[in-house]
Amino acid sequence: MSKEARGLDVNVMGREFRVSCTDEERRDLLKAVDHLNSKMREIRDTGKIIGVERIAIMAALNIAHEYLSTRMDGGFDVGEFKRRMSNMQATIDQAMNGQDDLF
Known about the structure:
This protein has three helices and two strands. It is an alpha+beta fold.
């Protein structure tokens, strides 16, 4: 996989955007686009807010609120959890390296 950034075309509420990302970021970026589209459709379907820009701002505010809620007041920080799990996995892999020769 390449660490070089490439352009990726994404569709948000019927509008095309070109976003720069590496191959490693591609899957997570597409998940983020799906999440954003889902939130925007939720807001649009209530019928209370009209206009893609207003819907996008409300979706951004909702997503930011959800994110901050997980980090504040003793909330669970998913990003930190993933980093810690990756570090633990690397430590286990390093400790297990060469163990196959023992059996």
